[in-house]
Amino acid sequence: MKFAFTDEQQMLQDTTNAFLSAKADSSSLRAVLASETGFDESLWQTICTDMYWQGVAVPESAGGLGLGGVELAIIAESAGEALLASPFFAVSQSVLALRECADSDAAQSLYEAILEGEIVALAGTSARADWSDVGVVAKHEAGQWVLSGESRFVPYGHAASPLLIAAQLKGSEGASQLGLFVIDAEASGVSVHRTPTMDQSRPMATVTLDAAKVDNAACLSSDAAEALDTVLAMSRILTAADQVGVAQASLDSSVAYTSERVQFDRTIASFQAIKHKAADMMLKVESARSLVYYAACIVDAWYEGSADRSTLIEASLMASACAGDAAFFNAGSGIQMHGGVGITEEYDIQLYFKRARSTESYLGRPSEMREQLAVMLLDGVDS
Amino acid sequence: MKLTFTREDELFRDEVATWLDAHLRGDFAAIRYRGGPGDEHHFVNERKAWERKLADGRWTCIGWPEAWGGRAASIEQQVIFHEEYARAGGPGRMGHIGDTLTGPTLLAFGTKAQKEKYLPGIRAGREFWSQGYSEPGAGSDLAAIRTRAELDEATGQWRINGQKVWTSLAHESDFVFVLARVDKDSQRHHGLGFFLVALDQPGVTIRPINQLTGTAEFNEVYFDDAVCGTDDMVGAPGEGWKVAMGLLGFERGVSTLGQQMLFQTELDEIIRIARDNGAAKNPEIRQRIAEAHIGLRTMRYNSMRMLSGGEDGSLSREAMIYKLYWSSWHRNLGKLAMDVLGPEAELLEAAPYELNRLQSLFLFTRADTIYGGTNQIQRNIIAERALGMPKEPRGQGR
Question: Which of A201, A241, B248, B297 could form a disulfide with A77 if both were Cys (CB 3.0 to 4.6 A apart)?
Answer without folding.
Answer: A241
